[in-house]
Automatic annotation (TrEMBL):
<keyword id="KW-0813">Transport</keyword>
<dbReference type="InterPro" id="IPR003593">
    <property type="entry name" value="AAA+_ATPase"/>
</dbReference>
<dbReference type="GO" id="GO:0005524">
    <property type="term" value="F:ATP binding"/>
</dbReference>
<feature type="domain" description="ABC transporter">
    <location>
        <begin position="8"/>
        <end position="232"/>
    </location>
</feature>
<dbReference type="InterPro" id="IPR003439">
    <property type="entry name" value="ABC_transporter-like_ATP-bd"/>
</dbReference>
<keyword id="KW-0547">Nucleotide-binding</keyword>
<dbReference type="InterPro" id="IPR017871">
    <property type="entry name" value="ABC_transporter-like_CS"/>
</dbReference>
<keyword id="KW-0067">ATP-binding</keyword>
<protein>
    <submittedName>
        <fullName>ABC transporter, ATP-binding protein</fullName>
    </submittedName>
</protein>
<dbReference type="Pfam" id="PF00005">
    <property type="entry name" value="ABC_tran"/>
</dbReference>
<comment type="similarity">
    <text>Belongs to the ABC transporter superfamily.</text>
</comment>
<dbReference type="InterPro" id="IPR027417">
    <property type="entry name" value="P-loop_NTPase"/>
</dbReference>
């Protein structure tokens, strides 16, 4: 498999609870060597979509893993590993024993357990009971369990929830490393700042529908087009004409302050200099995934 090859193809996923439509025609691909960020507000349908993809709940549409439905694979754990909230098991079971039990069910040798405990940094916690694990340790244990069968696809649902900054950083670097190994990684989250640092591609879900799919580079480009430049200058009318001729729009926010859209700060500064208008203040916010998401959300609610 080459980087960019689609390992998972989900098409037309749908799900209703009574008369309420939870998912409506959700389609997405997960590609080898990439982290796909599945973003949306709480209640947007991310978890339901993941459950339908994995066959944990019934729904409409279909999902192919390596070209076949998951049930058609003799050992699903060697195709996809899922972390849906830490590690699931009896709280009194010790971590190593629990992972060995899960491994035995998938014909995975015990040596793989110790290898993964070292990989996720839990060798020293191997004898702890599951109920004694911290939230961050439980997430690492869940990842180790998901990787027992060495699957090419890894799916994580809100893995950073409640984690401290150190654990979040570890998670980000670990998942980037898994993608570098050629795995297709799907991470759902509503933490947009973290997703901006992690994902190669973004799928935006709103009210059960995919409203945007793009690479992170495209996201940043679209977000940059929406960002505004703030400034202070003594002659706003003259500056407004100069910027208007250059394709921008100046909106006063005070006697000498304004917001400019349609131009970046370099172009604003250049046009102001050419017009002979001094600038007392010039500032431009960096583009962010949050800007992109909020812009998409505004469009979604406007057209609905």
């Amino acid at each position: 498999m080459k980087k960019g090859d689609p390992l998972v193809e989900a098409r037309g996923l749908g799900r209703s609870f009574g008369s309420k439509r939870i998912l409506d025609g959700v389609s997405l691909d997960l590609r080898a060597g990439e982290v796909t960020g599945f973003v949306g507000a709480n209640g947007a349908g991310k978890t339901t979509a993941i459950h339908v993809m994995l066959g944990l709940v019934r729904g409409e549409g279909h999902t192919l893993f390596l070209g076949r439905p998951l049930y058609a694979h003799g050992a699903p754990g060697t195709v996809v590993g899922a972390v849906l909230g830490g590690v699931a098991g009896h709280p009194r079971h010790r971590l190593r024993a629990h992972l060995r039990m899960v491994a035995a069910g998938s014909a995975v040798p015990d040596g793989r357990v110790d290898e993964l405990l070292e990989t996720v940094g839990l060798t020293g916690a191997a004898r702890l009971r599951l109920g004694e694990l911290s939230l961050g340790m439980a997430q690492r244990a869940g990842i180790a369990q998901a990787l027992l069968g060495d699957p090419p696809v890894l799916v994580l649902d809100e893995p950073a929830n409640g984690l401290d900054p150190h654990s979040v950083r570890w998670l980000r670097e670990f998942l980037r490393g898994q993608a570098a190994l050629g795995r297709a990684v799907l991470v759902s989250s509503h933490l947009l700042g973290e997703m901006q640092q992690l994902a190669d591609r973004v799928v935006v879900l709103s009210r059960g529908r995919v409203v945007a799919q793009a690479s992170m580079a495209e996201v940043m480009e679209r977000a940059a087009a929406r960002r505004a430049v703030t400034l202070e200058a003594p002659d706003l009318p003259l500056l407004a004409r100069a910027l208007g001729d250059g394709g921008g729009r100046l909106t006063p926010t005070g006697e000498q302050s304004a917001i400019v859209t349609g131009l970046d700060r370099v172009r604003v500064g250049t046009l102001a200099l050419e017009a002979g208008v001094p600038l007392y203040w010039l500032h431009e916010e960096r583009a962010s995934l949050e800007d992109f998401y909020l812009g998409i959300a505004e469009e979604e609610f406007t057209i609905s």
